[in-house]
Amino acid sequence: MAFKLVLTDKAVKDLDYLNREVSKKLLKKLAWIMEQRDPLSFGVKLTDPSVGDIRFRIGDYRAIGIVNYRSKKIVIVAIGHRREIYR
Question: Does an H or E element contain 44, and which?
Answer without folding.
Answer: strand 43-45
